[in-house]
Amino acid sequence: MGLPGLEYALPIVTDPFVIGLIVAGTFAGVLVGALPGLSSSMAVALLLPFSLYLDPIPAIALLSALYCAGTFGGSITAILINAPGAPPAAATAFDGYPLAVKGEAGRALGIAAVSSACGGIFSVLVLLFAAPWLARIAYTFGPPEYFALAVFGLSMLSSISGAEPTKNLIGGCFGLLIATVGVDLTTGIERLTFGIPELYDGIHFIPVLIGLFAVTELLTQAQTLGLEKVAVTIKALKLPTLDDFKRVKGTILRSSGIGTFIGILPAEGSTMAAMIGYNEAKRWSDAPEEFGKGSIEGIAGPEAANNAATGGSMVPTLALGIPGSATAAVILGGLQVQGLRPGPYLFDEQPGLLYGIFFAMLLANALFLVFGLLGAKLFSRISLVPTTLLWPTVFALCFVGAYGLEQSLVDVWVMLVAGLIGFGLKRYGFSPAPIIMGLVLGGLVETSLAQSMIIFDQQWTGFLARPISLIFFALALVSMLNAPVRGFIRNRSQRSGGAA
Amino acid sequence: MRHQDSLIGVCLVAFCGFVFWLTMGFDEVPPMLSQNVPPTFFPRLVLSIIALLSLALVVQGLKKEVDAKETIEPAVFVTAAIIAVAGLLLSFAGTLLTLSLVAIVLPIAWGERRAHLIGALAVCLPAGVYLIFSLALGIRFPAGRLFEGLL
């Protein structure tokens, strides 16, 4: 018996146009990842409006390839200029840069590329089998279960970006509130439109996410103009030896598992996976004292984990319609604007989609290994492109992306306002990712809640009779209480330690 | 002086109160649709949760020590002003001229002094946008009232 849907996927994934898109997406992803300040989330957000000109499978394949390659690309600048191109590569700089300073930049980049590719390929294999399996379970879900699942997904926001759980939850709810703008579909009543006709259909999430990711970053870059970037010179690309790979193979395997698991958890993304991957690499290492001074395990751990999180995060995104990370939320939005319905029925309606994404991510992981190793010198030079020239170009792309969607200047204004608000929020500890998650999930949360309330005859207690909903609500409670309880225990042990 | 989180929390509670007040101005639901969940239900539920979380933020802020906040560089205000003016200019000067002006003004505001690079960007950026997005993808950008009047 063949794999279901494979016959639909083969003509697509063997199409030279699709392969060309994946190659271009991978190259662009590594390039964007290598430029400090430009993250894969931002790149996917900027590309999303233009992907609408493509059919769904090539479009999502392109975005997926960009996601994988962008996550790896961040490691190049982390290693060469000690400035992570993207947040998931922050942990890579801890050991990558010291190793580069010792004159072993090629070795560091080689370890990063191979670990990233291994982590990414491992997670894509998990995606291929886990997504349909999870989708089969989700077939039994009704509106109450979906509402509870979305609440669980949003509750996980409390643990992203670590230190500010309350602000992350507020951000997620703020995203839900923005999603309520427009005409209410069940009653036809206008909500928070202020009489602006362009807002009757709601605030489209694409201008908001371009504003929150890209315009906010433009203003952040203006704040850090004086910082000088100095790249470590790559004299000769000295690649890692076989002994190096033998030493890190356990770390790669462990981090691949950690990264995939963390990626599957709703809302958790590559950044957290990389941090845990780094900590676990250090904990299991025979030479933990080398960490921070140029340990190759300190590069392999976070790199395998952050790329493994890419495939992992696509599992709940495709199977349940709940994004596994901020970038996956953007891709989920891409599925929605393509007219697809993410969730268990997606595989029936688009039988080739899973394989299209699987193939794109697999090819991207193999390609960035080549680009990362052979193009390291080029990318290291590109990473030094003056910000004074780069960011006006990014602004032009922001404008075109926001305008091109509906060819409306209102969308451009929404983008600019979102960017200004995003900068203010970022300055006070609010991350843009939760807002995007809330905005993308807003429709699902409100619709499933409204349907549930009709099913339960407007009685909240109806949820108590749904075991799966109760499990998700319990998990949501655990995830929200996790950080405060741990903080309380830590404070108490510190106080008792101080008293002793 | 308390931690700024307390102030943010208070502002958010006030914001929630304001939006809650706005929801009171929503139109009445026609009787034939009254069995549905009212349109105010979900926004008010979300606002209530934000308000509760904001109160938690106020309490957390009271327990934190005041941290010295990095001052906002003048370049941020200048950049914000440039992009806001660019947004206003779009309908008047059109897309290509506006992008060209941004490509000149933004680098200068950020300290770029190499005229040949600025000039090249001012020409290549709008040209690239026109070729890729207008000619190839068929996006019709606003020409601007300035040029409509001239034509």
What is the structure about, briefly put?
With 500 residues, chain A is mainly α. Chain A is built from 19 helices and two strands.
How does the SSE layout of this entry go?
The complex is a heterodimer of chains A (500) and B (151).
Chain A: H1 6-13, H2 16-34, H3 40-51, H4 56-80, H5 90-138, H6 143-155, H7 165-179, E1 182-183, E2 190-191, H8 205-223, H9 242-264, H10 270-284, H11 297-319, H12 326-337, H13 346-349, H14 353-374, H15 376-382, H16 387-406, H17 409-427, H18 432-455, H19 467-499
Antiparallel strand pairs in A: 1-2
Helix pairs in contact in A: 1-14, 2-4, 2-14, 3-4, 3-8, 3-12, 3-16, 4-5, 4-11, 4-12, 4-14, 5-9, 5-11, 5-14, 6-18, 6-19, 7-18, 8-16, 8-17, 8-18, 9-10, 9-11, 10-11, 11-12, 12-18, 16-17
Chain B: H1 4-23, H2 41-63, H3 74-93, H4 95-109, H5 115-136, H6 145-150
What would you say this structure looks like, in words?
The complex is a heterodimer of chains A (500) and B (151). Chain A contains 19 helices and 2 strands. By secondary structure, chain A is an all-alpha fold. Chain A is 72% helix and 1% strand. The longest helix of chain A has 49 residues, at 90-138. Chain A starts with 5 loop residues before the first helix and ends with a helix. In chain A, α3 packs parallel to α12. Chain B is mostly helical. Chain B folds into 2 domains: 4-63; 74-150, no CATH class. In chain B, 70% of the residues lie in helices and 0% in strands. Chain B has helices at 4-23, 41-63, 74-93, 95-109, 115-136, 145-150. The longest helix of chain B has 23 residues, at 41-63. The N and C termini of chain B lie far apart (60 Å). The chains are: A mainly alpha (500), B mainly alpha (151).
